[in-house]
Structures are given as C-alpha cells and as structure tokens.
Amino acid sequence: MKKQAVRNTFLVAVTVAGLVTGHRALRAQQTGEVQELLNLPVLSKYTTMDEVQKHLETKVPSVPKYEDAQTWQNYAESLRRVVLDKVVFRGEAAHWRTLPGKVEWLDTIKGGEGYHLKKLRYEVVPGMWVPAVLYEPDQVTGKVPVVLNVNGHDPNGKAAVYKQLRCINYAKRGMVALNVEWFNMGQLRGPGFSHYKLNQLDLLGTSGMAPFYLNLSRGLDLLLNHPNADPKRVMVTGLSGGGWQTIFFSALDTRVTLANPVAGYSSFLTRIRHLKDLGDSEQTPNDLAKYADYTHLTALLAPRHALLTYNAKDECCFEAGYALPPLMEAAEPVYRLFANPGRLRSHVNHEPGTHNYEVDNRQANYRAVGDYFFPREARFNASEIASQAEVKTAAELNVPLPANNEDFQSLALKLATNLPRPVDAHHKKLRELVRTKGLHVEASPAGPERDRNGVHVVPWRLRLEQTFTVPAIELDPGSPHGTTILIADGGRTAVAAHAEQLLAAGQRVLAVDPFYFGESRLAERDFLFALLLASVGDRPLGLQASEVMSIARWARARWGREPVTVRAVGPRTSTIALVSAALEASAIGKLELYGCLDSFREVIQQGRGVNEWPEMFCFGLFESFDIGDLAKMIAPRPIRFVKPTALAQAAPIAATPEERDACACR
C-alpha cells in the first residue's frame, strides 16, 4: 500500500514535470515566433543618420554680414555675452565666475641655459586644482609677451615633448610661457575627469563647460599678473583639444591678442558630414550651436592676430582640405571690415601632414610671433632652437595636488546634495527643460501585413513632422482589450518575452524604437550626434518623449478612445516613458516600468557618462525633477515599477512581491 502511494506520487511528479517542460517548450516556441516578428526590418541602416544630419543642418546659424566694423563690433560683444551667460556660466558656474583665483607657487627647478621652471597649482572651481609649470627667462626686463600653452587628448599632458619644446623656445626668446594641465590628461588622468562626465554637472543645471573655460581664464589671469607681462602681447596656442581650447577661449576673451589653434576645430556644418570631426562634450556644449557656430568664433577673433594651422593628411580630425576653407570664408570678410586682413593667416602642414604640432607647425607659430610680437627686431629667428636635451620627464614636472582634489563626478555629487529644488508650474517647467514638441504622425506600412498563429502583424514607418521616422511593429492578437506601446533600452528586438506576455494578456502591442534605440540608433558616432542635437537647442530626451507622446496620440486615434499603456524596459526608456506620461495625460493612461531608476542621483553615483546614456543628461532636469516628482505629475494614473530581476522572467500582469504599484511617487 505504501509502495503504491510512493509509485503514484512519482507518476504524478513525472506527469507534472512533463507538463511544465511542455509548457516551457511551447512558451519558448511562441517567444521565438514573436522574436522573428520583432526582427522584421523597417528602416535602412542609415535612415536615422540621414534624417539627423538634415535636421541639424537646418539648425546651425550662419555668420551675419555687416557693412562696417562698428556694427560688427556691437554684434560681436553681444554674441560673446550670450555665449558666456547662456552656455558657459549657467547655474552654480555663475557664482564660480565671481570667485577670486587662488594660486600656490611651489618649487623652482633648473631648465636649460637662460631659463628656469616654476611649479604651481591654481584653483579652477572650489576644491578643483590644476597643476602647471611656468617657463621664465632668468633675466627678464621690461614688458614681454606671455603665452598660455594648452594641450589636447594626449595622456602625457603637460609633459608632452612637442609642448615642452614650444615652451622652452618661448622662454629662450625672452617670453613667459605657462604650461597648464588639461582635464583627464597627465596628472589629472582619472575616471572622474572623463570629459563625458562633465555632463553630470549639466544634469544638475550647472554648465559642465565652466571648469574648462575657467581653467584657461584663471591661467591667463596669473600670467597677466606677472610683473613683466605685456597685456598687448598675449598668445594662446595648442594642438587638437588644445586647438579647441584656443579658439573657444580666444574668441570670447579679448585679452588674447594672438590665437594659434592647431588642428583643433571645424564648423558644426563640417562636422555633420565629416564624422571624425564630431567633438567631445566640451566641444559640443548645450545650446552653443543655437547661438554660434565655430565660424562665428573664428570671426570673433577679428581684428586681433590669428594663425589657423591645419594638417593636410590629418588622420585624426579637422583635415585641412575640408576644415579650413569654411572658417577662412567666414572670417576674412570681417577682417576686411577692420582694414587689416593680413592679421588673419593660415598654415597647412604637409610633412608629416598628420595630426601634429611638430617642428614645421611650431616654426609657423614662431614666424607669427616674430611678425606680431617682435616686428622691429631684425635678429628674431623663427627657426626652432634645438632643445631636446632639456626636455623633462613627467616625474620632473610633477606638481603636488591635494589628496581630495575635486573632479567632475565628485563635484556633481556635492552639487546634487540638495536637489531637486521645488518648482512651480511643473508641466511648463518640464516642457522648457526637455523641449518636447507635438509632432504630427504620418503612418505608412513598411511591408506586407501577415498573420502568424492568430497574431496579425503590421510593420509601420511612423514619420513625424517630415523629420524623423520611427520604426514600429504592430502585433494584434485579435479582439484586443487595449494597446500597449513597448519600448526598451535594448531596442524592440530585446523584448520578445514582454511582447509575448502582453499578447497572452489580450493586449495589442506596438513595439517602437524611439530615437537612438534599436533600429533608430545611429550607425556611426551615435552619442556624439546626440550631443550635437543638444547643442543646436534640442534635447535627446525631449525628442524621444515627443515621439512616444505623438505615437500614443496616433495609436489612441487609430484604435479607439481608450488611452494606451506604455511599457518601458530599462532605466533609460523608463525615464522617457515617465516624461512622456507626465506631459501627455489624455493619450497615455498607464505606465509599466521595468528597471526604472529610483533617483537621477544614481546616474552620478554610478559614474555614468553621456557616452553611455546620452538622453539622461538633459540640462537642468535633476535641478527641478527627480523620478518621484515625475511620478507625482502622472497621478492618479497608475504606474507599476518592476525590479530588474523580473525582466527576464516577464512576470504576469498581476503584481508580485517584486513589484510596486504607485499612483504618485515612491
């Protein structure tokens, strides 16, 4: 009797196991079929890229034409104020701008014959110190030219040989030269100084560009405080990112009287088509291209001396053949207004012609120095003075820094302490920050309709305002109870289990790839285009939310009057869904968020950069809103927050202990 019971129990267990195994096999088969449907191609590889490029080209301003020098001067002064106030010194940076500079002088070491080196550090923003080395002639009399030397993306930083040779040559010619370190290079190399983390400050409503600018401004301050500094002979020069620093700073600070950017920049319009020119976060700050292109910045050098140096075969970026002509064409008419076109020069290096500031480019610089700073000295020789034996090691140039020196991430964590701040008119403020737009949807089938195991399938191209095309796959189980828009960080092809689950629950599924996700991801240099969108005045988050909102309105109009549900899988698309629902109350009735952040503070705590999550760094978003604030704006509509552990399981619609429902905030 006992043996029979055991045997029966065993048979039941085997039967149940077989049923479970069969169910799982059937479920896997169904999910596999859904996966095939979600994989249906809708867009070509370069559709989004082509649309973004055309959109950006309509947004970049051109340099205005004026008939006289005074009118241009008035315009130039106004443009400088706009860029400084509305791009560089936003938020807490407006306060940093007013602080007195701190300089700490350290050791003096022997250079070569006739000059010495002074080590120093100076404070850029509170708690953030930059190391530098001053090259000074042993005998200095009267007023002499001063040079601010900057470098680009060279891990050697201020110890780069070509940079040291330049500084040594200036000192041997009786000039005072400051060799400053750049963020994430040389002594400042470290993850917290990654240029893509400057956008953490942007998220808080403080310009991440400000430390870059203040690094130069405070460096020039201490140079001009030198007792022998001649304020009429002030040069800034550098290679690559140093060339970018040179043009950006020199255009906006008229204390600079000679600017020599080397292989450092091109017009935004040039960059849109020459992808290797697309620059890092500091080169493409929020809203800069809304007010000025780099053609404007070049023209802003007038009537001061300028030497634009480029390389003929530059394998890195800013190749002379295409980068230089638009800049000269923009600036030359302005220099002619001042009747001194000769103050604008260019030099193209052919040997080696690659990305460099080697001897040919250095000697072009020395020639400009001789012509502009020593015009009546017949003995001035523009040939480089051989100084290889005097180059120092990085250890010899090392400048002690505070152990707790601030970087972009640590600074952002401090600024985030008391954020977000209370705001009035939440919906208006959110629209202003993310810059959403109502976009008309023109829908067209992207292929033949088909039926698969009771599911009707339609691939859609959703064209929004004749600008961006969003791919979507409609899955209709027959007599659906409602419509769910499905978006995911991994794109629609990554959420077959979610789609299958929704179909089983009787939901029509519209699997959509908003801008930057899935098929809508850019084929090349993706996050750099996202930066450029923010620079022309758009916001990637606002574009994505506008797409979801507009598609929700289209779906509601097409399939009935009931609001749609939006299910987002991943922290990024969950943020898009929250913003969309907060600003679209009629068409979006419910949210289901899988893996949503608890707070935007996590973006900083996790050390995220704009190269990873470009839309999450919407300027000023966390200054005014956190996840809970967005959820409050959606109330009383329901929101389900599902922990990431439930993602792969595609848990049933009914709530589980791993889920939290909220009509307001957490």
**Whole-Å distance between the termini?**
57 Å
Please summarize the sheet with the most strands. 10 strands, mixed
CATH C-level category of the largest domain? Alpha Beta
> What structural class do you assign from the helix and strand content?
alpha/beta
Low-pLDDT runs: 1-28, 647-666
CATH architecture of the largest domain: 3-Layer(aba) Sandwich
The overall strand count is: 19
Work out the helix count. 22
User: Number of folding domains?
Assistant: 2
Explain what you see.
The chain is an alpha/beta fold and 666 residues long. The protein folds into 2 domains: 56-411, Rossmann fold, CATH 3.40.50.1820; 420-653, Alpha/Beta hydrolase fold, catalytic domain (Rossmann fold, 3-Layer(aba) Sandwich). Helix content is 38%, strand content 20%. The protein contains 22 helices and 19 strands. Strands 10, 11, 12, 13, 14, 15, 16, 17, 18 and 19 form a 10-stranded mixed sheet that branches. The longest helix is centred in the N-terminal third of the chain and has 37 residues, at 2-38. The radius of gyration is 30 Å and the shape is elongated. The two termini are 57 Å apart. The model is unreliable at 1-28 and 647-666 (pLDDT under 50).
Task: Tell me briefly what this model is.
With 666 residues, the chain is of the alpha/beta class. It is 38% helix and 20% strand.
Features of the shown structure:
22 helices, Rossmann fold, elongated, 666 residues, alpha/beta, disordered N terminus, single chain, 10-stranded mixed β-sheet
